[in-house]
Amino acid sequence: MTGMVEFAKMNGIGNKILVVDMRGRTDRVTPEAAIALAGDAETRFDQIMAIHDPKAHGTDAYIDILNNDGSKAGACGNGTRCVVQALAAETGRKAFTFQTVAGILNAVEHDDGSISVDMGKPEFRWDRIPLSEEFHDTSKIELQIGPIDAPILHSPAVMSIGNPHAIFWVDRDPMDYDLERFGPLLENHPMFPEKANITLAQVTSPSTMITRTWERGAGLTLACGSAACAAAVSAARTGRTGRKVELTVASSPGRQTLTIDWRERDNHVVMTGAAEWEWSGRLDPLTGAFARDEVAPQDGAAAH
Ligand SMILES: N[C@@H](CCC[C@H](N)C(=O)O)C(=O)O
């Protein structure tokens, strides 16, 4: 299949997202296109959220998620909020059900413009995260970085929320740590056969915390929604916080927040936060060639 498709450059509290409209087509955004788009300063992104026709009854769309290295991801919380905002603007609807390779996600846009995504149930079993070694208790595993007798980061909580996460507890602001150096080492550690997203988390009260994430397949990002969910669940699971937290993403512009609620009644994790449209254009999903839409000056940022 050939031809250009519409896309929107968006962000979820800084997480750089391209929402690509692949509905009505049978092809996919290729890894080569993703790498080309990631290499251009204008379209640089953390994740592509490619909206496809639904595959399952009762769903609105199938979402294919690509990282900026061309690899696939099972979950992207910030990107899902961007998809909801784009589809809500197009259809006037408020509630959506999506399918990804990791399962079904429900999401809703609220009257104040914030968006909640039900990210599903956390998975703690070592072989489902997955880890390469058996751990009965994944709330604190043996893994450390730095000198053996004075590790800089150690004993992370690990889990999956559609993608694998390791949460390292820190006692200073996460921006104080050299995540650019430790992130790739930990992402690719033999403990994680499918690699992992690496998050530094500082708990500041029983209902507040601060995070910063090195993303699997995307590197240092300004924000990661599934990591925020994993950090909040891990904090509650280990008794550091309650089940609902206001989470500040240290690296996001203006240190924006997400509300994470690990619901007692059904074990689902619900993330609420903002999404922002930046500009729109058309791209070739085979090669990544793109063109920005012309915007008349008087239309400004409202033209989406
Ligand atoms: N930014 C995303 C998560 C992206 C997926 C990740 N890099 C992976 O490969 O697991 C989010 O907001 O959740």
TrEMBL record:
SUPFAM superfamilies documented for this protein: Diaminopimelate epimerase-like
Keywords: Amino-acid biosynthesis, Cytoplasm, Isomerase, Lysine biosynthesis
Subcellular location(s) of the protein: Cytoplasm
Residues annotated for substrate binding in this entry: 15, 47, 67, 77-78, 163, 197, 215-216, 225-226
Matching Pfam families: DAP_epimerase
Domain of life: Bacteria
Enzyme class: isomerase
Molecular function (Gene Ontology), one example: diaminopimelate epimerase activity
PROSITE patterns noted in UniProt: DAP_EPIMERASE
Assembly: Homodimer.
Family as reported in the entry's similarity comment: Belongs to the diaminopimelate epimerase family.
Protein name from the UniProt record: Diaminopimelate epimerase
Organism field: Rhizobium halophytocola
